[in-house]
Amino acid sequence: MCGIVGYLGNRKAYPIIINGLKRLEYRGYDSAGLVVMEDDGFGLVKTKGKVSELEEKSKFLNNGSTLGVGHTRWATHGEPNDVNSHPHLSNDEQIVLVHNGIIENYDSLKTELIQKGFVFHSETDTEVLVNLIQYFKDKENLNLTEAVRYSLNEVVGAYAIAVMDKNDPDEIVVARLGSPLVIGIGDNEFFIASDASPFLEFTKEAFYLDDGEMATIRRDKDIDIRKIKDNLKVTHTVQELKINLEEIEKSGYEHFMLKEIYEQPKSIRDTMRGRLLVDEGIIKMAGIWDYQEKFLNAKRIIIVACGTSYHAGLIGEYLIEDLARIPVEVEYASEFRYRNPIINRKDVVIAISQSGETADTLAALKLAREKGAFIYGINNVVGSSIARITDAGSYTHAGPEIGVASTKAFTAQLTILSLIAIKLGKHNGNLSKERFNSLISELDNIPELVQKTLENTAEKVIEISEKYKNATNALYLGRGYNFPSALEGALKLKEISYIHAEGYPAAEMKHGPIALIDENMPVVIIAPRTGYYEKVVSNAMEIKARKGQIIAVVNTGDTELSKIADHVIEIPNSSEEFSPILAAIPLQLLSYYIAVKLGRNVDQPRNLAKSVTEEKKI
Ligand code: F6R
């Protein structure tokens, strides 16, 4: 995944592009580049490395130019280096292009272009596209818009692109298929970006280009939007974005991840806002209510997701089966899409995705739709690709999540899944009025408990992180609702600290992993007071007998496990259904502080990107 940004208007383009790229860096950060239109042609700089390096090398471009585009890259074709960085120029150096996505048939197109005399300098698929545009422009004597359209009709793959022509200082052409692109509209000025963060201080008026559309943006003219396939004119309604700039800045925190961890009382509250109406004794969710017969008559619910969202799905399975007694299956989207799954018309398929752009989740959902299932989305990014193709859905409203490691999106997903499970349980008669009321008032109080958890656990977690920062392995154990918590805790640790960690159901220890236990193995046991608490205590004893170091996440006032454990982290008491939300907090903090102490790049861990919008990677 990459980030693209562009500007056409009356202001200096350079600072808008550089600052925009900094905000989009979460989308990819192995190289960056930009081009501004100068009096004598393109001013182009690109480099391997971060946007700060680009800024150092490109300051001289901060001139009067009012048109330009920039790119921050996460490599897919060709290693991160200066040549492979975007923007890419056509052979005649008349056309320049930035691209987020993958041109799948680039190899055959490249071969054809080479036969026609084109030469290639980079290993990228993008350079093929820019030369294809030149080819059609010259051969058919087309203007830039037409040449882009001709070319895109030859292309198989996913893209959001922005293209400029050296001979036209008043125009940018953009297009999208499978990668996001939003167009911001100011006073005689236009912004384009992969998300709205680069232009929020200038305008909140914007619209999202739909898949298969392209737009020609001209100075002092209305935007001309067309279908790429048949050139049919399209209109879009400009909407006012409900997102604040402060939300996407660090607000004094050292890292976005820490800010996002601390935002959770608010993000969970925002997720419930307008939905959980405790005084009226109702859960209002139009996406569920309008299609209640689909859910209530569902033979089963299949949840598809990846990574942290998959872990949320696993907890969703416990919630929905427990509270609504509807059978649930949870699948990695990447497996589901390729394994010829049995999907019936009476199935409801729920895709959980923070970004709403994860390629595997999107493909799994499309497959489910083809097979006639009702498809539902739980997404955080409004207007994302998944949100747009689903029959219905619920946004998590956690606000932008910039840190690559997902934190607040996870607890927001758990909140939505709790709301859905409780609502369905009420409507299909599985929950008594009393139980329903008690669950909703408890859920309503979760943001306060999350706040308390943050206040009461941080110090202890910092102490523990100092002790275990040099561990090379870690085990995370849990049972029931907190088995997925263990998986998620382990994922958080490995992705940002690069310490190998495994999550296991506590009782599975004796079937193999217990062989790993010795005095150097930290074992995080998530054991709030639940029906199987005593069993987890027994598992802990087995670990202690082998000298494992136990970090226990227990309820306030715990007496048994606390006696065995080397370190105790107390989370507030709650029903088991909501305990994963509370348990997530110290686990997120633990991974954060260990990573910080190890000097890791917490917000942009190596080899990762915020959302995986391509299947192929180098
Ligand atoms: C882990 C993480 C990833 C994502 C996964 C799915 O912290 O962020 O595992 O959860 O890539 O992403 P979304 O939810 O955007 O589909």
Helix/strand class = alpha/beta
Unreliable parts? none
Mean pLDDT: 93
Calculate Rg over CA atoms: 25 Å
Task: List the SSEs and their pairings.
Layout: E1 3-8, H1 13-24, E2 31-38, E3 41-48, H2 51-58, E4 67-73, E5 88-89, E6 95-103, H3 106-115, H4 126-140, H5 144-152, E7 157-165, E8 171-177, E9 182-185, E10 190-193, E11 205-208, E12 213-218, E13 224-227, E14 233-234, E15 239-240, H6 256-262, H7 264-272, E16 276-277, E17 282-283, H8 286-289, H9 292-296, E18 300-305, H10 307-324, E19 328-332, H11 333-336, E20 347-353, H12 359-370, E21 374-379, H13 385-389, E22 392-395, H14 408-427, H15 433-468, E23 473-478, H16 482-497, E24 500-505, E25 522-526, H17 533-545, E26 549-555, H18 560-564, E27 567-571, H19 579-597
Parallel strand pairs: 18-19, 18-20, 20-21, 21-22, 23-24, 23-25, 25-26, 26-27
Antiparallel strand pairs: 1-4, 1-10, 2-3, 2-4, 5-6, 6-7, 7-8, 8-12, 9-10, 9-11, 11-15, 12-13, 13-14, 16-17
The structure holds fructose -6-phosphate (F6R).
